[in-house]
């Protein structure tokens, strides 16, 4: 390519047409219109002004470029096409304005986690037969003699003797209420003479039924039911201490306000009756094993229930098994409580 004589003969050398137009490597010059506003592949009109690229050369400059191309080769040609007056510049630099350091977003001050309110310590209350270790059950001897004289079952008699031996010389046993049954923990004392009535089909006293109620409550911790204390609300207390009875009902109602049912084992005139209170429907179900068309007026506790819950109730006598003798009522109340806690509380209307 540096040979002047052969450079024009080189097939790779670009051809130039002297007519108006720009250089073409194929020897073809695109026609340029006289109208400066017409766009071609090399010229573009914008706002009636033609903006030329630094790589667009005039005829003289173009001729000089071709001569340089012939003499110095392709690399020199590229260098000669640099705009006039351009000097090698520094390496590319990016003018980046300094950005302010991001400020951390203000974080809210951590709030102290709410601490659960301390639960008041449950108090121990002796509510039945306040006695000491030297207390003697005046009825125990008579009951033991009755068992020995009338019991024909050796196995049952052995169980009675074993129970007396487990008492460790004491003539009573004590039973504490499970946690959460009452606002305050209650300690019930059961004389052995009342406990052994279970073995001879005897009438069940308040202490025994209450102990069964505490055991059944403890066996069903997720129950929908709460209990009134039969020791506090039996008929004698309704007559002797009406204010105490009404206050107890209010306390239990507030303490177990999340419960759906309230079970009330009620002892009056040597007879047991179970009441099932459903405050949500303002209904009280009477479960009585001696059903002689009784109404709520037959029970002193009825007025205390309505006063304690501060509403009137619809009283419904439920159909239930009836007792044949005069001693079964306590056992039937225990049975009804057990059945209600096991199944009826979940589908009461279809099972009562």
Question: How would you describe this protein?
Answer:
- The protein is an alpha/beta fold and 352 residues long.
- The chain folds into 3 domains: 1-31 and 56-77, no CATH class; 121-200, no CATH class; 222-352, Adenoviral Proteinase, Chain A (Adenoviral Proteinase, Chain, 3-Layer(aba) Sandwich), CATH 3.40.395.
- It has helices at 4-7, 59-80, 140-150, 154-166, 192-195, 206-219, 230-233, 235-240, 242-255, 301-309, 329-342, 348-351; strands at 45-46, 49-50, 125-128, 172-176, 186-191, 225-227, 261-268, 271-278, 283-287, 314-317.
- The N and C termini lie far apart (117 Å).
Distance between the termini: 117 Å
Structural class assignment: alpha/beta
Helix count, per DSSP? 12
Major β-sheet strand ordering = 6-7-8-9-10
* Name of the level-1 CATH class of the largest domain: Alpha Beta
Largest sheet: 5 strands, mixed
CATH-derived topology of the largest domain: Adenoviral Proteinase, Chain
Kindly provide the radius of gyration, computed on alpha-carbon positions and rounded to a whole number of angstroms. 54 Å
Number of domain units:
3
Low-confidence stretches: 5-55, 71-75, 80-97, 119-132
Anisotropy-based shape: globular
Number of strands: 10
Helix content: 25-40%
List SSEs in N-to-C order.
HEEHEHHEEHHEHHHEEEHEHH
CATH superfamily of the largest domain: Adenoviral Proteinase, Chain A
Strand content: 5-15%
Average of pLDDT: 74
